[in-house]
Design goal:
binds iron/sulfur cluster; three-stranded antiparallel sheet; five-stranded antiparallel sheet; elongated; 12% strand; Alpha-Beta Plaits; single chain; alpha+beta
Length: 377
Amino acid sequence: MAVFLVGGNAEAWCPFGGVEALYTYAREGNLVCSLGVSNFYILGGVLLSVLLLRRAFCGYVCPIGAISEWLQAAARRLRIRPRRVPYGLDRVLALLKYAVLGVILYFTWRAGELVFRGYDPCYALLSRHGEDITFWAYVVSGAILLISLFVKVPFCRWLCPLAAVFTPFSRVGLMRIKRNPDACTDCGACSRVCPMGIRVHTHANVTAARCTACLECVAVCPTRKRGALTWGLPRHLDRRGPLAVTSGPWPQAALIAIMLLCIGAAVAATYTFPLPSFVQTRGTAPATTATLYVNIEGVTCRGSANLLTYFLERDDDLEIPGYLKIEAWPGPGASAVHITYDPSQTTPEAIRNAIKQPYFDLVINQFRVSPFQITEP
Ligand code: SF4
Ligand code: SF4
């Protein structure tokens, strides 16, 4: 949300963007314009956090989770009591998120574009309400917000496709809620308060993939001081109990610190190892190759990077037969571009000329004037 508020591209930091872009990047080596390799790094950092903390990302980082919690707080002020959804119905509705994930991935991977962006309630709520958002995105958002006043976190429980991605990782998550049957009075308060509909009081270990580590169950437990309910490592790793902590500021502080470490590592990796978001190769590389490092103005997204390859693969008298590969980091201003070539067949000067000079495109039967300006790195 902070990225959105300071005017940044929040989409480039969305872990679900990494899921959507994965197939196209692996197959074609490029990304749609609003996404970047930052999506892959943040996805990796978030999945690491899920392996450690289960779905704590949903409760502590995701803006939709935050909005849902604000609505619950508003509902309490309005004296609206949250409705309990029968356990069986809750489990059936929870399957919807896998269907949502399957449909989104099928059409997105097939088209190589974010075809559902215009219908995405998260994008509608957090973007700047551009023309690409359809009326239906607002209808879905409004319905989710309205239902959130009466039912706890309905989107996170039943519809979120990222939650479906989390499931196998969260299922084997390290930290968990543990119940000590000797101290527990079976009052059921923990189960009643759980926003994810988990029957906490029937488990010795809560290993449900949907636990968001909100610790609300620990907070309401009347015998938590006797250790009835704790959050920490699995019992076999926790014989001396160094991390068996109850409610209070420390467990959430520890949780938030681990979460920040995972996300901070992902952000640091994005800038330390900036993978190209546009890669295209031609032919087979010989034993000896060379690379031309340039900054080029006009390579702003996947479309203009594609146009640049037309100039590199031109077939007129400025043709560069030794051109082998382009790696680009499209963006505003001058973008870094690395061009690999066979030094026995061409020169850096020939490549620069091919990029700058107009050429006659036989396919569209007209001259293409180069929109690119080369500056040295
Ligand atoms: S209330 Fe307890 S079991 Fe339920 S999601 Fe929160 S931490 Fe997990
Ligand atoms: S709230 Fe505490 S005492 Fe009550 S059932 Fe849950 S773990 Fe047991």
